[in-house]
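F.,

This is the one I mentioned.
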């Protein structure tokens, strides 16, 4: 008797492992990752509770390991743009575009006996602390609010430097808020003394993208990650500034070690 069976194979199109911008470790908190598009967002309701910017979009499946996967089907095209949306404002959202391999390329390689390794289909995008980030009591850093003419500047990028060395980075959110926590790079400047003199440089997109009230992330710039298997990927790491970002402010606060310093920033 001949056995009859169905063979169903799922092939990885895109694998993502979000990383914490301070610790460099895998993010354990809830993050939603969806293929970019127009969410089912009702702009007539009130501001609270906040609506999900991934409502109605195709979500990447999350494994118990904290990795997210998108498998090939008829709707998957290359490149693919996704939006990473953390819950509870613990991290700042991002939009990233990935030039994934086409399914035809993967099938051709399989037929030739040359598998395309999953490592060339996976990226580790970095997410930076948001207003709700779990900050250790002994952390040194800056809570900032960036405004121009009284209005928040959305989606800023911030760097903290001592001389030529970058010792911390932050991504600003839609409210103009950022949380910059000094992390592992502080050892590169030698022994730290309190108060610590740093230079804080703020960047923003010029001109800003238009905001669609139906989509809370409509003006969040799309960043193009490095190609499959390319390292280092400074875009995924949140180091490279998005297109059309320029310096809008710079200041020199004194930071107390082991404390967060609040810094309001008014852009002329």
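My design for it:
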């Amino acid at each position: 008797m001949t056995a009859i069976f169905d063979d169903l194979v799922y092939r990885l199109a895109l694998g993502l492992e979000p990383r914490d911008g301070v610790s460099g470790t895998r993010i354990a908190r809830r993050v939603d990752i969806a293929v970019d598009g127009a969410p089912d967002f009702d702009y007539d309701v009130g501001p609270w509770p906040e609506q999900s910017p991934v409502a109605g979009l195709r979500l990447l499946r999350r494994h118990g390991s904290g990795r997210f996967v998108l498998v090939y089907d008829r709707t998957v095209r290359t490149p693919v743009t996704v939006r990473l949306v953390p819950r509870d404002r613990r991290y700042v959202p991002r939009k990233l575009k990935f030039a994934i391999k086409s399914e035809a390329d993967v099938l051709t390689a399989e037929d030739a006996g040359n598998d395309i390794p999953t490592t060339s289909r996976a990226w580790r995008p970095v997410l930076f602390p948001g207003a709700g980030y779990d900050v250790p009591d002994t952390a040194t850093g800056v809570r900032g609010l960036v405004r121009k003419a009284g209005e928040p500047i959305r989606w800023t990028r911030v760097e903290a430097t001592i001389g030529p060395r970058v010792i911390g980075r932050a991504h600003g959110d839609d409210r103009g808020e950022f949380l910059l926590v000094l992390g592992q790079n502080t050892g590169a400047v030698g022994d730290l003394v309190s108060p610590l003199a740093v230079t804080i440089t703020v960047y923003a997109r010029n001109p800003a993208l238009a905001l669609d009230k139906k989509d809370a992330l409509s003006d969040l710039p799309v960043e193009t990650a490095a190609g499959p298997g390319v390292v280092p990927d400074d875009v995924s790491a949140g180091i490279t500034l998005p297109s059309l970002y320029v310096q809008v402010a710079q200041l020199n606060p004194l930071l107390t070690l082991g404390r967060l310093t609040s810094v309001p920033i008014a852009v002329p």
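The chain has a mean pLDDT of 88.

Talk soon.
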